[in-house]
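My current task is to audit a protein record that another person submitted. I have pasted the whole thing underneath without changing anything:
***
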Amino acid sequence: MIEIVCNDRLGKKVRVKCNPDDTIGDLKLLIAAQTGTKPEKIVLKKWQAPL
């Protein structure tokens, strides 16, 4: 399992554990379950570049 740190830039930082073979959609669902944000609204970026 890998651990991903997500920051919503409003002060909330969440750590999500997922499998390396999970898709981006699966990752968004895991983040949504922990933050309460809809998965459709989540935009994942790495150093300002969208994934």
Observations:
- The first helix runs from residue 24 to 35.
- Helices lie at 24-35.
- The chain has a mean pLDDT of 90.
